[in-house]
Each structure stands twice: as structure tokens, then as C-alpha cells.
């Protein structure tokens, strides 16, 4: 798949080299290789949303929507309709479990490589036509198989980061597409103005604000989109950085219908708000229990979470089974706002 026009990226993107490598591997295996262009679809269905989220001060995850809109929609439809394929196969470290006519999405066997988080917004019906051949293997096992078969990319460095940004500085990249909203850094404890920032979209809750001339590191704890203010606090364990609830929107249940456990206060889900985060335990209820149109959920963490930001993806699990992916629309009040002290056993 070609999802981004490298000609606009001054050769920074490694897409062309990936295409060369793919052709060599296919030649080695004796199978056909074809490149399909989804640049237009990616721009309209993934990248435009990515930019809009940043303009609104959110922290988007375009990889999740690339999977939903491109790999498991455009590409899958192309494979089925244009080539007659019955299944597609991807290199995601994830697994599936078939139970009659239904299918479950599971974590990958290698917990250090698990990519089920990025598949949480894909419709569950797509997984009935998908194979994950490396999902039950470790990364080292996959590399060894490639070495044994004489595949030239067996030791190739894995890709990281957002595909269309590559190794470039994300602030420079965003400045090419978004009109920057400059403003002030304000200490949320003293209300002192500590300096000026170059663009509110550059900052996400929980990150080091990197304010020059400070005696200690200051961390982003809140953003005021209307006023262009980035609020900061000192210390990684500052109560202003932590909350124990959030509201999530656009839930994608990877089950056939809503689970019976929803609104069951005795049922404990596990969750992640970041890829490869140590799973936590939470309870989930509907924000409007009697509404048939309001799908928003309230997630209550069993321990305070640091750096919960609007736009992040929250994924719900039960053991290894992926239940739902949703977008954090509103972090709950911070421990500072609640005038509560953090528990002594808080880890981050």
C-alpha cells in the first residue's frame, strides 16, 4: 500500500525503500507483488482528522484510524473485490479466536510487541477475514524464521512513530499544515506567567514543557484552547497531572452488540490509554444510561492515571480479549482540582 506521497516529503519517508524491499522478498518467495495507491483515501479519511484534532488541542492517534479506514477497509475491499482474495494477512502482533460465527481479537503472544491497541477501532467483522501469522510468535522468532529462509530484511530495523512524519521533528511538520496558536505558559499553582509558547498544538498533557530558564522541569497539565494558555506544574508526581476518571466517545465494541457487563458495577475491565502501557483495572458505565443515542462512557480507574489527554485512545480488555476502543473526549477533574492527595503507591 502507498498511503503517503513521498514526493512531498523531500525524500525523508522510507516508503520507496520499503517498496524495493517488498519486491525483493516476493521475488525470493516466488509470489507476485503489486503496489496499490490509497494516498487520496488516506488524506481525506485519516490525515484531515489528524490535523483537525491537533487544531482543537487534542492528542490524536492516526495509526488507529489508518487501520480502520485504509488497511481493513480500502485495502481489504480491494483485495476481496479486485483479486478475489478470501482473506488478507498483516504483520500485526495480534491474534484472533473464532467461536462459531463470531470472532474475538486477542493480544499478541509477545507482550512487548502487542499491537492489539492499534486495532481497537477496526470493525469486528473485518477480523473474520484476516490472518495474523506472527501474532503467536515473538519478534525474535520472526527474525529467526526470516534468517533461516534467507530473507534479506531479517535484521531490518522496525519502523516507529507516525508513518507520514518519519524521523522528522513533529513540531516542524505540524507548522507546515496548521496555523499556530501562540500563547503563554502559566503555572497552575501560582498563576504566574512563565513564558510564551510557539503553538498550543505542540503540547500534550503530561509532557515536559521545556521552558527555558526554569530551575526545575515543568510539565503540561492542562490546555485552554480559547485563551491559548498551556498550564504547567512542577514535578512528575504533581496532583495536577493525575485523574481517576474520564469520559470516552465513539466506542467501537469488538463484539456483536453491547456486552452484558456494561453498567455492571461488579465487573472489572482492564484498560490501556497508551500502547504497551501496563494494563490497569477500571469500571465502565454509560454516561446517559437511559439514552439510546448517547454512546459516551464513563471510565473509572482503580488507580490515578498521569497525563490523560483528550484525543487519546482508550482500549478496554478482558484478560487477552479486546473488547472496545474509544476516544478520550474529556479527562476527569485532576487530583489538584479535587483537592485530594495522591496515594503513596502511585506509579507512572
Secondary structural class: alpha+beta
Please count the helical segments. Answer: 5
Q: What is the percentage of strand-forming residues?
A: 25-35%
- Give the helices and strands as they follow along the chain: HHHEEEEHHEEEEEEEEEE
Read across the widest sheet, the strand sequence of neighbours is: 9-12-11-10-13-14
Task: Walk me through this protein's architecture.
This protein has five helices and 14 strands. It is α+β, with helices and mostly antiparallel strands. The chain has a six-stranded antiparallel beta barrel with strand order 9-12-11-10-13-14. The longest helix has 21 residues, at 62-82. The model has no long low-confidence stretch (mean pLDDT 91).
Question: What's this, in brief?
Answer:
It contains five helices and 14 strands. The chain is an alpha+beta fold.
Record the SSE blueprint.
Elements: H1 15-29, H2 39-55, H3 62-82, E1 88-89, E2 94-99, E3 102-107, E4 130-131, H4 139-148, H5 170-175, E5 183-187, E6 193-197, E7 218-224, E8 229-234, E9 242-253, E10 269-272, E11 280-286, E12 297-306, E13 313-318, E14 321-331
Parallel strand pairs: 1-4, 5-8
Antiparallel strand pairs: 2-3, 5-6, 7-8, 9-12, 9-14, 10-11, 10-13, 11-12, 13-14
Amino acid at each position: 500500500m502507498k498511503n503517503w506521497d513521498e514526493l512531498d516529503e523531500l525524500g525523508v519517508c522510507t516508503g520507496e525503500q520499503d517498496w524495493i524491499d517488498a519486491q525483493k522478498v516476493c521475488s525470493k518467495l516466488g509470489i507476485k507483488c503489486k503496489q496499490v495507491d490509497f494516498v487520496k483515501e488516506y488524506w481525506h479519511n485519516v490525515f484531515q482528522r489528524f490535523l483537525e484534532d491537533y487544531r482543537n488541542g487534542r492528542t490524536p492517534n492516526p495509526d488507529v484510524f489508518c487501520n480502520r479506514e485504509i488497511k481493513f477497509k480500502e485495502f481489504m475491499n480491494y483485495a476481496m473485490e479486485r483479486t478475489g482474495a478470501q482473506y488478507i494477512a498483516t504483520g500485526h502482533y495480534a491474534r484472533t479466536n473464532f467461536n462459531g460465527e463470531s470472532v474475538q481479537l486477542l493480544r499478541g503472544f509477545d507482550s512487548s510487541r502487542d499491537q492489539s491497541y492499534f486495532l481497537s477501532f477496526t470493525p469486528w467483522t473485518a477480523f473474520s477475514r484476516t490472518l495474523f501469522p506472527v501474532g503467536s510468535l515473538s519478534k525474535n522468532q520472526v527474525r529467526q524464521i526470516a534468517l533461516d529462509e534467507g530473507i534479506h530484511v531479517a535484521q531490518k530495523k522496525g519502523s516507529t512513530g507516525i508513518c507520514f512524519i518519519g524521523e522528522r521533528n513533529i513540531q516542524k511538520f505540524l507548522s507546515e499544515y496548521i496555523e499556530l496558536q501562540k500563547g503563554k505558559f502559566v503555572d497552575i499553582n501560582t498563576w504566574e506567567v512563565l513564558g510564551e509558547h510557539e503553538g498550543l498544538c505542540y503540547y500534550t498533557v503530561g509532557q515536559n514543557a521545556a521552558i527555558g530558564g526554569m530551575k526545575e522541569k515543568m510539565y503540561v497539565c492542562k490546555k485552554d484552547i480559547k485563551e491559548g494558555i498551556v498550564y504547567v506544574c512542577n514535578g512528575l508526581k504533581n496532583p495536577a497531572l493525575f485523574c481517576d476518571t474520564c469520559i470516552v466517545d465513539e466506542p467501537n465494541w469488538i463484539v456483536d452488540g453491547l456486552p452484558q457487563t456494561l453498567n455492571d458495577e461488579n465487573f472489572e475491565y482492564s484498560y490501556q490509554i497508551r500502547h504497551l502501557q501496563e494494563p490497569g483495572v477500571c469500571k465502565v458505565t454509560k454516561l446517559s444510561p437511559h439514552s439510546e443515542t448517547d454512546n459516551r462512557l464513563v471510565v473509572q480507574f482503580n488507580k490515578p492515571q498521569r497525563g490523560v489527554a483528550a484525543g487519546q485512545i482508550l482500549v478496554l480488555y478482558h484478560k487477552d480479549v479486546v473488547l472496545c476502543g474509544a476516544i478520550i473526549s474529556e479527562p476527569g477533574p485532576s487530583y489538584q482540582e479535587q483537592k485530594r492527595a495522591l496515594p503513596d503507591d502511585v506509579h507512572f
